[in-house]
């Protein structure tokens, strides 16, 4: 899947497969994707409407929130556990994967608790939970902690024990992302190590949940172009085939998802890909043929409603959108002091940056008469660039194109604008190889290029995003609206190999300070 579906996990229920992924600080969170063949996927909803605690996610927390969820089907219910590095391990469940999910329940409070995965052992009736650690919050990492858990998944029954200490394993570092299984009389933990860009996938097995565990590397880059390869989940089809989904770090594109064949060797260990190396081409799973499908991107915003592919950069509030009788997204120009930095704006509606050359377009009409009100389309990351319309003091609207480098707290002009007759413009971003973005606009006389090429950048652990926004300076009373219509993402005519060599930096902007106290190698 050629977009940022970070830290995927997968489960089968009957003939259906479901996948979820990290959603970090965006809302709604915990995307739910559906497939019948593990190849063609559609986005069918989200399991988490709002992030908790509410006060923590009233403003953007781009790299925080929902980290590395685990999706399971047990006792007629779907379960998702995840770790929030600043608050602890959460759990939700539902009878229907597309239905109403329970209110998030905090299973274990604490900082640095991440990558949680449950297991209900059908052989013994016991329930367990394993999780990793974020050193930036807890001071420790490279280890996995195990707990006994209540059968209803609401509480842990002991203080926990380190069941794998990778500091004692020569060459292992940044062990994380555990997925817990029972197979052939063994407890299995499939977990990556070595960092997202250069690491490998490991397997651990023990006759007892609390160990001791023996380990093996089961998937690594080798001579392929699939760097990482990192964190994912094992699933068995109804016909008995085994498969493994994992991600590959792709810079501004985020973490794209690969499907690998899995078989069990004569010695009982799993063998992934081509004898432990990732494959790019392989026979599809032996399942009924399905029509080609990918998660939706285009949107006409019928009745003012946006599709499932969109997420806010913080918990939404009333007034951010207005439903109406026609097509088109009507965004309220929310008043804010942060109009000069989109990274801090909570009411930016986003979707994932496609990991292939494409053209992104949308029609914009700025209805707000508030001087300083503005609206547009952005490529949003640690650095960002946007193009759109701004209301001037004299009441006219003008085409503007602005950008903000990494760590800058103010935007800069990317190109001189021109008046926008009728307060309208068609906006375009052409995304080429290496996530290099060319901006242009049409105010009625054809498309005009604007500014220099912008190299999209990821957040610290999240791929770049496409965003739509409307904002106005602080003041009193409603600030008016902006309308977006006919949003389209069209693949470019020539699409290169979708998996390039290990990613180089996508921007000339220097990397962040390596002494930054946040989690360094995991994300």
In summary, what is this structure?
The protein contains 1 helix and 34 strands.
How does the SSE layout of this entry go?
Layout: E1 9-13, E2 16-20, E3 29-35, E4 42-48, E5 67-74, E6 77-84, E7 88-94, E8 105-109, E9 113-120, E10 127-133, H1 135-138, E11 143-149, E12 161-165, E13 179-183, E14 186-193, E15 200-206, E16 214-219, E17 230-236, E18 242-249, E19 255-264, E20 270-272, E21 311-312, E22 329-332, E23 334-335, E24 349-352, E25 358-366, E26 374-380, E27 384-391, E28 397-404, E29 412-415, E30 424-431, E31 436-442, E32 448-455, E33 465-472, E34 481-491
Parallel strand pairs: 23-33
Antiparallel strand pairs: 1-2, 2-3, 3-4, 5-6, 6-7, 7-8, 9-10, 10-11, 11-12, 13-14, 14-15, 15-16, 17-18, 18-19, 19-20, 21-24, 22-34, 24-33, 25-30, 25-34, 26-27, 26-33, 27-28, 28-29, 30-31, 31-32
Structure, described:
Helix content is 1%, strand content 43%. With 523 residues, it is mostly beta strands. It has two domains: 9-272, Tachylectin-2, Chain A (5 Propeller); 311-491, Jelly Rolls (Sandwich), CATH 2.60.120.200. The strands form seven sheets. Strands 21, 23, 24, 26, 27, 28, 29 and 33 form an eight-stranded mixed β-sheet that branches. β19 and β20 (270-272) form a beta hairpin. The longest helix is centred in the N-terminal third of the chain and has 4 residues, at 135-138. The chain is elongated, with a radius of gyration of 23 Å. The model is unreliable at 495-523 (pLDDT under 50).
């Amino acid at each position: 899947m050629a977009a940022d579906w970070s830290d995927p996990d997968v489960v089968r229920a009957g003939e259906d497969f479901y996948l979820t992924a990290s959603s970090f600080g965006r809302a709604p969170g915990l995307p739910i994707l559906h497939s019948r063949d593990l190849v063609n996927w559609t986005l069918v909803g989200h399991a988490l409407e709002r992030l908790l605690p509410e006060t923590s996610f009233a403003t953007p927390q781009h790299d925080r929130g929902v980290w590395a969820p685990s999706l399971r089907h047990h006792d007629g219910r779907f379960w998702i556990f995840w770790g929030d590095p600043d608050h602890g391990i959460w759990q939700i469940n539902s009878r229907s994967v597309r239905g109403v999910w329970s209110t998030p329940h905090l299973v274990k409070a604490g900082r640095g608790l991440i990558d949680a995965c449950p297991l209900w052992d059908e052989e013994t009736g016991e329930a367990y939970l394993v999780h990793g650690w974020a050193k930036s919050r807890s001071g420790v990492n490279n280890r996995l902690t195990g707990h006994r858990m209540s059968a209803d998944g609401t509480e842990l029954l002991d203080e926990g024990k380190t069941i794998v200490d990778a500091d004692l394993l020569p060459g292992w570092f940044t062990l994380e992302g555990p997925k817990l299984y029972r197979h052939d009389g063994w407890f299995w933990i499939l977990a990556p190590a070595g960092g997202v860009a250069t690491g490998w996938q490991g397997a651990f097995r023990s006759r007892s949940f609390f160990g001791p565990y023996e380990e093996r590397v089961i998937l690594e880059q080798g001579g392929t172009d699939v760097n990482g390869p990192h964190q994912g989940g094992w699933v068995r089809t109804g016909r008995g085939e085994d498969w493994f989904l994992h991600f590959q770090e792709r810079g501004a594109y985020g973490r794209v998802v690969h499907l690998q064949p899995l078989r069990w060797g004569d010695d009982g260990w799993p063998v992934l890909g081509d004898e432990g190396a990732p494959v790019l081409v392989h026979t599809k799973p032996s399942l009924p043929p399905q029509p080609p499908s990918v998660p939706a991107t285009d949107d006409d915003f019928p009745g003012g409603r946006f599709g499932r592919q969109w997420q806010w950069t913080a918990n939404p509030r009333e007034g951010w959108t207005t439903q109406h009788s026609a097509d088109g997204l009507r965004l309220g120009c929310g008043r804010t002091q942060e109009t000069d930095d989109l990274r801090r704006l909570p009411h930016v509606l986003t979707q994932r940056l496609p990991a292939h050359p494409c053209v992104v377009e949308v029609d914009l009409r700025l209805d707000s008469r508030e001087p300083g009100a503005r609206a547009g389309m952005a490529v949003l990351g640690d650095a960002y660039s946007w193009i759109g319309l701004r209301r001037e003091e004299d009441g006219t609207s003008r085409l503007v194109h602005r950008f903000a480098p990494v760590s800058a707290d103010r935007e800069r002009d990317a190109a001189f604008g021109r008046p926008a007759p009728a307060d309208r413009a068609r906006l375009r971003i052409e995304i080429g190889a290496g996530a290099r973005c060319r901006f242009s606009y049409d105010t009625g006389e054809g498309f005009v290029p604007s500014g220099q090429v912008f190299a999209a950048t990821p957040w610290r652990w999240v791929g770049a995003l496409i965003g739509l926004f409307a904002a106005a300076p602080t003041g009193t009373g409603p600030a008016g609206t902006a309308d977006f219509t006919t949003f389209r993402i069209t693949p470019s005519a020539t699409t290169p190999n979708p998996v390039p060599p290990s990613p180089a930096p996508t921007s000339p902007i220097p990397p962040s300070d390596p002494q930054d106290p946040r989690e360094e190698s995991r994300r």
